[in-house]
Amino acid sequence: MKDKYVNPYTDFGFKRIFGQEANKDILISFLNSILPPQHQIAELDFLNTEQIPPRKDVYRSILDLHCVTPSGERFIVEMQQKLQPFFMDRSVYYTASAITNMVKRGDDAIKLPAVYFIGILNFVHTEAGWQDLLVREITLKDRDGVEVYKKLRMIFIQTPLFTKTENELMTTRDKWFYFLQKLPALESIPAAFGMDPVFVRAFEVAETANMSEAEQLAYFKSWDDMVTLKAIIDYDKKVAREEGLAEGREEGREKGKEEGLAEGMEKGLVKGKAEGLAEGIEIGRVKNNRLNALKMKAEGCPMSLITTVTGLTEADL
User: Fold this and answer.
1) Where exactly are the structural domains of the chain?
2) Bridge partners of residue 45, in order along the sequence
3) Fewer beta carbons within 10 Å, N or C terminal of the chain?
4) Rounded to whole angstroms, how far apart are CA atoms 307 and 292?
């Protein structure tokens, strides 16, 4: 790889840019571009990304980034390269694990700080309601749409839906979304970013030439893991499509057989009715002609006249 900058969707690249204590102002700038005004961050600390469950038989989660502000607000930041099964379930579980770990045994009263889950998605979710939303914010609301709990939010950013060009970048949020989406293809800091010290440092941190040999090896491994994961997921999707197609063809054949059998039975029934009706008409006609022939014979009509009128032969008579 000869890219000047790391791919931020690799585990190594994402944590190098946003997960270093020495450059946490980069993460603060990014988060503030997403968060509402009442929860702007001035300072934060990185926490252990491993969520220790209360029991040994409970799944242990490892987060990409887990941060806390001096006033106690928690921020979980997850980068997701590809859509995986139960993605939303996992997001909710990570958030719930962080909340659970805030409460200490023996606390008489539980007062929770605000908790944010921020998911950076390098894909567009396939479920209804996601396709056209660059940023989707989820909160706890009642069935009338009234927010009932303001301290829990999940924010998802579908970066492929960001379509602004460099000349259209107006806000800090625009610049961060552009940074995430375009970084591996860039050769220098875009002019639209100016000399903002946070972005200047972000580009410096992301530059592969500034990494040690060990860091470059770690990045290459992370990049290879990302490519491998993508290939596995794409292969699974291909197999699922082929299996679904084969199953659909088989179901179509079976359904076709059943429909064909039903249609054949229906046509046979109709044909049987028609043939039965014709046969009944013929039997009735023959019986009627014989009765007429008997009447004409009893009245002394000549045989030639009887055969002409009834269609019967002299042998029949």
Assistant:
1) 11-211
2) 68
3) N
4) 11
Query: And the tokens for 207?
Result: 């530059």
CA distance 12 to 275: 81
Burial per residue of 163-197, b for 16 or more beta-carbon CB atoms within 10 angstroms, e otherwise: ebeeeebeebbbbbbbbbbbbbebeebbebbeeee
Confidence of residue 259 (pLDDT cuts 50, 70, 90): confident
What are the two backbone dihedrals, phi and then psi, of residue 84, each rounded to the nearest 5 degrees? Answer: -125, 160
Residues 164-214: pLDDT tens digits?
999 999 999 999 999 999 999 999 999 999 889 999 999 999 998 888 888
pLDDT: which is higher, 134 or 215: 134
Q: Whole-model pTM above 0.90?
A: no
Residue 62's contacts (CB-CB under 8 Å, 6 or more residues apart) are: 49, 50, 51
Q: What is the pLDDT of residues 127-176, one digit of tens each?
A: 887 888 999 999 999 999 999 998 899 999 999 999 999 999 999 999 99
Tell me: pLDDT of 261 over 90: no
Task: Give the separation between CA 124 and CA 207, rounded to whole angstroms.
Answer: 28
The angle, 0 to 180 degrees and rounded to 10, between the axes of the packed helices 197-206 and 24-32 is 120
Distance, CA of 138 to CA of 117 (rounded, Å) = 10
Give the helix, strand, coil percentages of the chain, each rounded to 5: 55, 15, 35
Confidence bin at 276 (pLDDT 50/70/90): low
Q: Who's near 15: CB < 8 A, 6+ residues apart?
A: 64, 65
Cβ proximity of 139 and 150 under 8 Å? yes
Take residue 245 and report the two structure tokens written for it: 């197609």
d(CA 32, CA 35): 5
Contact 306, 291 (CB under 8 A): no
